[in-house]
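== Fold encoding ==
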Amino acid sequence: MGTRTTAACDAVGNKWNEKGHEMKKEEHMQQSGLTGMVEGAKNAMGAACDKVSETVSGAKYEVNKNIAENPNNTVGTRVQAANDAVGNKMSEKVHETKKDQQMERAGLKSETP
């Protein structure tokens, strides 16, 4: 076989072994009960990241809202800031929703208020 063919066969074999190891790892995690803990930790970290993004978007919203409301700014600046503020508010709500969903999945928040 040529070098390329051998390399292709090796790549397929390596991928096969990799997937086999991943399956064994998952099986061991399930047997030891770690899967739920790992998923819970991932969801908790995701919720924390979304909380940070929510807070940043909220702060950007306030800055753009103040720029838009300032009569000393040009009309173009005020319109652009108002447009940005709308986008910031939407982003804030998206991150808030994602955070709440991840907290529920992590078992940190009940589904009913």
Remarks:
- The mean pLDDT is 84.
- DSSP finds three helices and no strands in the chain.
- Helices lie at 3-32, 34-69, 75-106.
